[in-house]
Specification:
heterodimer, A: 340 residues, alpha/beta, Metallo-beta-lactamase, Chain A, Rossmann fold, 2 domains, seven-stranded mixed sheet, B: 529 residues, alpha+beta, six-stranded mixed sheet, globular, binds zinc ion
């Protein structure tokens, strides 16, 4: 029987052949990072390796780290392991990490979505023996509409608010979701304002060539009356805050996959919920898993128990992998700041 | 269905009352009469009879979605709403439909007389012609649970706007026994001489919790009564017949056969407002005694003897067939006392006693005796006030007792439903018995969403064992549990059952060994049970 390429330790997924960790949650010597979200890219490691598209955000978030980069598809040998990074379609620069040891191939998905959002490098299906997949939205109630449909909903909401003399406040996590929304907005409708947390990430991504529309940073001395009918993109934490109230008559929107559920939608302090996620939906997960041809599956994030049982029903050798990712499932996303 | 689904969407997407009312008023101004009538029926709790069991709906939905039934059930547990779960798991519809609300309601009412296979075919065909929101609405009609953030009061206000009629008059028209089968929109809402329905109750006047006693002015302007822990009821004697209505507008006459004699004990044309309580001859029995009665449509003789029910009446809405609601409370109450003084001694009705107090301090002292009186606290009502429609601030106040509390340790956690589907919100609490933690109650509410979020994160990392959806967690967190009453219960391991338990505070300042003991709980039982 083939050796396990990766094993689970109290610090995270470990590759003995190459003596490195993938997205570890406690400080290690060598960490390979799938993407810059807080639950995957943690501070305190001695040496980081990520894609060149991911690095600027890592530096922005984690400060002065020792960080080496690779291009997508570039093969690296680390010890006895061959390692390569491949697009995950989650956020710009995000990767799945492929590890091959003696002909045995494992892929760690990180977070992924299969729809091409036009900003992130499109998800690349990889063949492997073992696939470690996220399943944040691993329930058959999650079905995303094409992003053009959601873009139309958001733009119409914005235009209507403007006609009724209200400012639109769209809440979304500042890395990834915010830029995806900016990319979907129709700048012909009106001015787009951004919260500092979002604009700081915009600056990082613009510098590396990610195409984003023009935005106006909200500063303390910004004349709030000078931009009637504007749309503001800000992190969810501002919903209901004094910061938001200063803009006067507001309509608030919240963009997340969780908005699929009416109950969750009503819990949020927002007027409108837009169902849009940077994670794969039910069909997306099943399609991606099938495309790997993997003999063995490990599941992380979200409804792992239920999703694993379903995969087993379908004849897969599937197992729950207990991790400390998944600051992303729902309520926690707002506090720990990962995208959903 | 499109028009109604659009209304549903607008109402669902806004938290602003004014927008909800505007959308409803718009609907009432444009929809066809049969649809309007059904909409009024739905929002006043008159749903079409359920034609299909939810078990079959689950089977068909799983079949149509191509998923195993257990996976459907797991999804339902997360979503928390059957109609919504079905709408979400189904594959996209193959065609669309322009049929209106009444068409679909008639279709599902037709299913009542169909056989199982015909029902299956009809429901699957319907799902295949409706989009996700229309399906949700259709499923809500099928399963009979229609709550969408619109109270009867809001609906009535919108109807008043759309028809130009008085809101209070409409509220009264909508009460009582009617269904879309027995009336029409014109007869119900517009007909000038709507046949006076003998059973029709008045909308209940509701109270707010008191906030600031000092703002109420001199105590002499107010009347005080015990706030009983029973069932609020309106008792109507008209045309020689008795009707007993609950606050939820449910006709309860048959559940309380001992009240039947009131049809002759009380003068014709009388309407009383009061509280039904199980009565031991001198004082109310604990609510648990009444609870056994509520759940039964037919009452066994033994139960009737153990827990006979009487009405403690505190208001008079109609006398001699005349509507008294605009008359000041002081006069209504005096007339009530006169009428009740004339009924036979053994009649199952009594005037709820007034509490005489000189000032607020005096009244505060009376409130302190509420538990002794088997009451939940006091009701304070302005002597000059009319009998309002619904909840109105200013004239009726409840002044409840402070709850009993106990510090307990959380030992099990379970995820919530619906609004809180992705949070752990349902907890089991324990107190110490020697070195052992004995579970004694569950509680679901009382924390903020942020606190539930924090606890959820903690539960994930501190799960000791899973039992299906329930997780046993490390005993670590102490919560102050508040409750309104305590009773002996052989069904519980602790031997105790609490009434209205909820989390009052998360005691992050306390460690588990500082939690209370079972002996302490038993002492509370001895004192207040
Ligand atoms: Zn992520
Ligand atoms: Zn993640």
């Amino acid at each position: 029987m083939a050796q396990a390429v990766l094993t689970m330790t109290d610090r995270g997924l470990y590759c003995a052949a190459g003596d490195f960790f993938i997205d570890p949650w406690r400080p290690v010597d060598r960490a390979l990072i799938t993407h810059g979200h807080a639950d995957h890219a943690r501070p305190g490691h001695r040496h980081y390796l990520c894609t060149d598209g991911c690095m600027p955000v890592m530096r922005h978030r984690l400060g002065d780290i020792v960080c080496e980069t690779v291009r997508y598809g570039e093969m690296r040998r680390i010890g006895d392991a061959e390692v390569s990074f491949h697009p995950a379609g989650h956020v710009p620069g995000s990767a799945q990490i492929r590890v091959a040891v003696g002909g045995e191939i494992w892929v760690v998905s990180g977070d992924y979505k299969v729809e091409d959002d036009g900003l992130s490098e499109a998800f690349e299906p990889l063949r492997c023996h073992t696939f470690i997949s996220e399943c944040t939205f691993g329930l058959p109630v999650f079905h995303w509409q094409r992003q053009a449909v959601v873009a139309d909903q958001i733009n119409r909401w914005w235009a209507r608010n403007m006609a009724e003399g209200r400012v639109s406040l769209l809440a979304a996590y500042s890395l990834g979701k915010a830029q995806r929304l900016l990319h979907l907005l129709d700048p012909a409708i009106g001015p787009i304002l951004t919260h500092a947390a979002v604009e700081n990430t915009n600056a990082v991504l613009r510098a590396q060539g990610v195409p984003l529309p023009d935005t106006i940073r909200i500063t303390p001395d910004l004349d709030r009356k000078a931009h009637p009918g504007a749309l503001i993109v800000a992190p969810p934490a501002v919903l209901g805050s004094p910061w938001a109230r200063r803009f006067g008559a507001l309509s608030t929107g919240y963009a997340s996959g969780w908005m699929q559920m009416r109950g969750v939608r009503r819990r949020r302090a927002a007027d409108r919920g837009f169902v849009i996620s940077d994670h794969a939906d039910w069909d997306g997960l099943l399609g991606a898993i099938k495309a790997t041809g993997a003999e063995k599956l490990y599941l992380t994030h979200g409804y792992t128990d239920i999703f694993t049982r379903y995969l087993r029903d379908q004849g897969h050798d599937a197992h729950v992998l207990a991790t400390e990712y998944g600051g992303e499932d729902g309520a926690e996303a707002e506090e720990t700041g990962d995208a959903a | 269905m499109k028009r109604f689904a659009a209304l549903f969407t607008v109402i669902d997407q806004t938290t602003r009352t004014s927008e909800k009312v505007a959308a409803l008023a718009d609907y009432f101004s444009s929809a066809p009469d049969p649809d309007k009538l059904w909409t009024i029926a739905i929002f006043s709790g008159r749903r079409p009879k359920r034609a299909v069991t939810t078990t079959r709906l689950r089977d068909w939905a799983a079949e149509a979605a191509g998923i195993p039934l257990w996976l459907f059930e797991e999804s339902y547990a997360v979503v928390g709403d059957l109609a919504e779960t079905i709408a979400l798991v189904l594959p996209p519809a193959q065609s669309a439909s322009d049929d209106d609300l009444s068409h679909w309601i008639n279709l599902l009412r037709g299913l009542i007389d169909s056989d199982d296979e015909a029902r299956r075919v009809a429901v699957l065909a319907a799902w295949d012609r409706l989009d996700t929101t229309e399906r949700l609405v259709f499923n809500k009609l099928l399963t009979g649970g229609f709550r969408m953030g619109v109270s009867q009061k809001l609906m009535t206000r919108a109807l008043a706007q759309a028809t130009g009629r008085d809101e209070a008059e409409l509220a009264h028209r909508l009460m009582g026994e009617w269904s879309p089968d027995t009336t029409s929109f014109t007869a119900l809402i517009e007909a000038e001489n709507a046949a006076a329905d003998l059973s029709r109750p008045y909308p209940f006047c509701l109270a707010y919790g008191v906030e600031d006693l000092a703002a109420l002015g001199p105590a002499a302007d107010w009347l005080a009564e015990w706030k009983w822990d029973g069932i609020r009821a309106q008792v109507i004697v008209r045309g020689g017949a008795l009707h007993v209505w609950s606050r939820g507008e449910e006709l309860m006459t048959d559940r309380f056969p001992e009240l039947a004699r009131l049809a002759t004990d009380l003068p014709d044309g009388t309407v009383l407002d009061g509280e039904l309580v199980a009565w031991d001859g001198a004082a109310p029995l604990p609510f648990a005694a009444l609870q056994k009665r509520i759940t039964r449509k037919v009452v066994p003789k033994k139960l009737l003897a153990e827990a006979p029910v009487i009405l403690l009446a505190y208001d008079l809405l109609e006398a001699g067939g005349a509507d008294l609601r605009a008359t000041p409370l002081s006069e209504r109450r005096a007339l009530l006392d006169r009428i009740l003084a004339a009924v036979p001694q053994d009649a199952p009705v009594q005037a709820s006693p007034l509490i005489l107090a000189l000032d607020w301090e005096d009244l505060g002292a009376a409130r302190g005796k509420a538990r002794q009186m088997k009451a939940e606290g006091l009701m304070i009502k302005r002597l000059s006030s009319p009998y309002h429609v619904g909840r109105k601030r200013g004239d009726w106040w409840k002044w409840k007792l402070d709850p009993l509390t106990i510090d307990a340790v959380m030992i099990y956690a379970q995820a919530g439903h619906g609004r809180r589907a992705n949070l752990f919100t349902d907890f089991t609490f324990a107190v110490w018995q020697g070195n052992e933690l004995v579970p004694f109650t569950k509680a679901y509410s009382g924390l903020t969403d942020a606190e539930f979020g924090q606890i959820t994160q903690w539960v994930r990392r501190n799960t000791l064992q899973r039992f299906g959806p329930v997780r046993q967690v490390t005993p670590h967190h102490v919560f102050e549990i508040a409750f309104e009453g305590i009773q002996e219960s052989p069904r519980h391991k602790s031997g105790i059952a609490l009434r209205f338990p909820r989390m009052l505070r998360w005691r992050q300042d306390k460690t588990v060994d500082q939690a209370d003991t079972l002996d302490h709980l038993k002492a509370l039982l001895a004192q207040y049970g």
